[in-house]
Design a protein that fits this description.
- There is one protein chain.
- This protein is of the alpha/beta class and about 260 residues long.
- The protein has ten helices and eight strands.
- Helix 9 crosses helix 10.
- The chain starts with a strand and ends in a 7-residue tail after the last helix.
Length: about 260
């Protein structure tokens, strides 16, 4: 069974002067059969839809990154997201990435939380998973997730997970999936490696976040969907499982969560 790169930014990878044909060829050579290209700005929506259209195995999301959402409801609305999805391609299988990012200076906590809730409400209305970004915002991210779940259930994934064990456990209780990037291969990711061992197998996903965060042995280079292989191999070693087992588990989890996606 092949791998799924559950979170990449193909249009941004291409901006690194890498042809899409090369991206797809290297992915196939490394057993990566499916990709989800995630948007972070409104300007990307049409571009990524056009990019993914010819390929049955590449899907996309609709959303705005928290660093693009400091205007809250002034930047984005449930109506705008839902209308765009309903009028768009069947390749749109998720909402996001959205969430909270308090790492960079100049953020507006209240506006980010407002925009985050708008994405969750859109995902709930459309019955699509929400892709959650969280950085230096564990407490507030859980607060929003819990409060929105009390209103009504929704499904989603914590992407590029680097948070605490406690955060992982609380997120899983809410039904969230946990996606691991190439960070887990870094020497200084020992705490993350310990948490990865205990993520429930039925909630585990793998991703690249390409072109960012390339795993060993490519750290510092442009990340590619093909490198999902190295992250999956690292997780297999950490969990004392075979690569084939991790590939099967994470692929099945992807298509369970993103149930609007069709298997290749």
């Amino acid at each position: 069974m092949g791998l799924v790169d559950s979170h990449c930014h193909l249009d941004t990878v291409i901006k690194e002067n890498i042809e899409l044909s090369e991206i797809l060829t290297t992915a196939k050579e490394n057993n990566v059969d499916t990709m989800l290209s995630v948007t972070t700005t409104k300007e990307q929506w049409d571009k990524v839809e056009e990019l993914t259209a010819p390929y049955d195995h590449i899907f996309m999301s609709i959303g705005t990154h928290p660093l693009e959402s400091n205007g809250g409801a002034d930047d984005i609305s449930v109506e705008e997201i839902t209308t765009r999805v309903q009028n768009g391609s069947k390749k749109i299988i998720a909402i996001g990435e959205s969430g909270l990012d308090f790492f960079h200076e100049g953020f507006n906590k209240e506006k980010q939380m407002e925009a985050f809730r708008i994405h969750i409400q859109s995902a709930r209305k459309l019955d699509l998973p929400v892709i959650v970004h969280t950085r230096e915002a564990e407490e507030e991210t859980l607060q929003v997730l819990k409060e929105e779940h009390e209103i009504a259930p929704f499904k989603g994934v914590i992407h590029c997970f680097t948070a605490s064990r406690e955060f992982m456990e609380e997120a899983v209780k809410l039904g969230m999936y946990i996606s691991i990037s190439g960070i887990v291969t870094f020497k200084n990711a020992k705490k993350l490696a310990k948490v990865v061992k205990d993520i429930p197998l039925d909630r585990l996903l793998v991703e690249t976040d390409a072109p960012f965060l390339a795993p060993k042995p490519f750290r510092g280079e442009t990340n590619l969907p093909a490198y999902t292989y190295h992250t999956a191999s690292c997780i297999a070693t950490l969990r004392d499982m075979s690569f084939e087992e991790i590939a099967e588990v994470t692929t099945n989890n992807f298509f369970r969560l993103f149930d609007k996606a069709t298997r290749p």
